[in-house]
Every structure is written in C-alpha cells, then in structure tokens.
C-alpha cells in the first residue's frame, strides 16, 4: 500500500522552491531545489512527478506572487492621481523587488519554444491590462492601457540590457507627463 498524498508537504516544498527561484533564478537542474528544501530529489519527484512539473509549479507559484504584488502596485487609490500610482508602481516593478520576478520570468520571454509554460508570453502581456485600464479610467484614459504596458515592458527590457536606471527612470517620468486627463 502506497503513501497517501500529503498536500501540506507539497505546499511547503513548493513555497521553498519558489523562494529559491525568486532569489536565484530558475535552475536548470533540481539540485538547487534539493538544497533549498532540505529534502531529496526523490521526494521532490514524488510530490511533483517530474522535473518539468516541479519547474512549472514553481513558475506558477512565482507568477501568483508577482500578480498579487503588481496588482497592488497598479491599483488606483482614492484621492491619489493615477500618474503618482504609476510612478510608485514603476519604482517597485523596476527596483529590487521587481528584479526578483525578472530573474525568473525573463528567460521565458526569450524562449521561443516555451516548453515549460507555452502560454506564458501571452499571459505576461495581457494580465496587466485590466488593472491598468481600471487605473487609467480615473484619468479618463482607459484606452491607454496597452500603451502604458508597452512603455513599462520596453523600459524594463532597456534597463535589463543596459543597466541604466537613471535614464529609464527619467524616460518613464517623462512618459507620465503625457498621461494627463483629457
């Protein structure tokens, strides 16, 4: 008779693996996850089935954390101009906290095959449109959500490639001045 599933152990392992991936990037082997969880490769595979299923679970957990963090950053606040909200969101997304997510998800954006998460690039683009539309609606400009998202993504790619935080911060600040209400 086999062991019964233990979802609480699986959750603990998944949380520890996601913490590790966010701190160090997604490893190409499971050995770093073994070290991070203090368990064995055999036990990780017991709980997740395969290496790819473990990696997919880690990506999904990290993505849940990113969505929660960024939705909070992008949420319109009563009495605050949405351009101020976007300035603060940019600081969070482009700063050290956002870098943890870029470390994990940037390779997925660059991977043409998308073996681990085939629909990632589409989701990573479209899931921010709703919060941006809602926030931009406070300026009377919800139709600009795609433009704002494209600017954020483009400046993040620029910043990642060049390391020029001062220039990309200045570019985003200048962009925000164009978002004044009609």
From TrEMBL:
<dbReference type="InterPro" id="IPR009057">
    <property type="entry name" value="Homeodomain-like_sf"/>
</dbReference>
<protein>
    <submittedName>
        <fullName>TetR/AcrR family transcriptional regulator</fullName>
    </submittedName>
</protein>
């Amino acid at each position: 008779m086999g062991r019964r599933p233990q979802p609480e152990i699986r959750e603990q392992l998944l949380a520890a693996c996601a913490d590790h991936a966010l701190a160090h990037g997604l490893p190409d082997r499971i050995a770093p996850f073994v070290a991070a969880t203090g368990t064995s490769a055999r036990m990780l595979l017991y709980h997740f089935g395969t290496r790819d299923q473990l990696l997919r679970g880690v990506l999904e957990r990290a993505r849940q954390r990113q969505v929660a963090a960024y939705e909070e950053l992008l949420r319109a606040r009563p009495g605050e101009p949405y351009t101020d909200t976007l300035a603060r969101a940019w600081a969070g997304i482009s700063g050290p906290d956002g870098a943890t997510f870029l470390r994990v998800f940037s390779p997925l954006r660059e991977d043409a095959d998308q073996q681990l998460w085939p629909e990632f690039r589409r989701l990573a683009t479209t899931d921010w449109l709703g919060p941006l539309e809602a926030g931009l609606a406070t300026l009377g400009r919800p139709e600009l959500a795609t433009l704002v998202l494209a600017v954020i993504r483009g400046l993040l790619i620029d910043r990642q490639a060049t390391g020029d935080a001062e220039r990309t911060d200045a570019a985003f600040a200048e962009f925000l001045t164009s978002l004044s209400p009609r």
